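Budget justification aside, the reviewers requested a transparent look at the raw inputs and outputs of the sequence design task funded under Objective 1. We therefore reproduce one unedited record. The lines immediately below are the structure tokens for a 209-residue chain.
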């Protein structure tokens, strides 16, 4: 008889009642007053959707929140480390992307015949100063972009950890004291030959520039 039913009804998923039975069991949980089941189901749906919207916005606020962890310390670093940190920040910023391409094209136009590796070295070394001078001549620029161009203070604030986008990162020194460890990072950086490569490492210090 099963063969005959299959030939009449077709594939099983077209006449399988299990999904509908499971869905009805969900609806039955909303019914708290048997005299008006439709109203209870509508109210239950409304409450569930409101909870989902509240949870979604709460999660988005948590992900967007950034805060530092641990004791604040102020230190003054050597110019080499300071310049590398500032260069890394500008190279990773999406707002600075168009200016990076403009600076590279300018270097190529002014130094025809030089290798791509030479252009990249000159770009990394001279881009922060060029960006600052270039934006000083502009009339309407974004405030955040203007702050990036000016560069940070020479006094750097350091912390043991940083919380961003729902993730908490610690320094290696703090990792040794904590039960939960998360000091590993990945960064896409530009090499001297102009190619982008992915580097993996650990956080030694957290700087707030």
């Amino acid at each position: 008889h099963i063969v005959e039913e299959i030939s009449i009804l077709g594939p099983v998923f077209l006449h399988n009642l299990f999904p509908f039975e499971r869905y009805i069991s969900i609806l039955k949980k909303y019914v708290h007053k048997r005299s008006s089941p439709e109203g209870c189901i509508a109210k239950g749906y409304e409450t569930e959707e409101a909870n989902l919207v509240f949870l979604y916005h709460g999660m988005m606020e948590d992900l967007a929140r950034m805060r530092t962890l641990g004791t604040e310390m102020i230190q003054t670093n050597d110019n080499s480390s300071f310049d590398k940190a500032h260069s890394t920040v500008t190279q990773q910023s999406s707002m600075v992307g168009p200016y990076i391409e403009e600076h590279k094209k300018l270097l190529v136009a002014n130094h025809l015949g030089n290798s791509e590796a030479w252009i990249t070295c000159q770009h990394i070394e001279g881009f922060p100063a060029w960006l600052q001078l270039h934006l000083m001549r502009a009339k309407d620029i974004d405030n955040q972009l203007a702050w990036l161009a000016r560069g940070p203070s020479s006094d750097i604030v350091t912390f043991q950890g940083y919380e961003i986008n729902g993730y908490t990162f610690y320094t290696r020194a703090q990792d040794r004291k904590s039960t939960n460890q998360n000091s590993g990072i990945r960064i896409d950086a530009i090499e001297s030959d102009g190619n982008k490569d992915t580097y993996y490492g650990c956080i030694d210090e957290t700087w707030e520039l």
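The beta strands are 66-69, 73-76, 155-159, 161-164, 167-170, 184-190, 196-202, 206-208. The longest strand covers residues 184-190. Computational costs for records of this kind are itemized in the attached budget.
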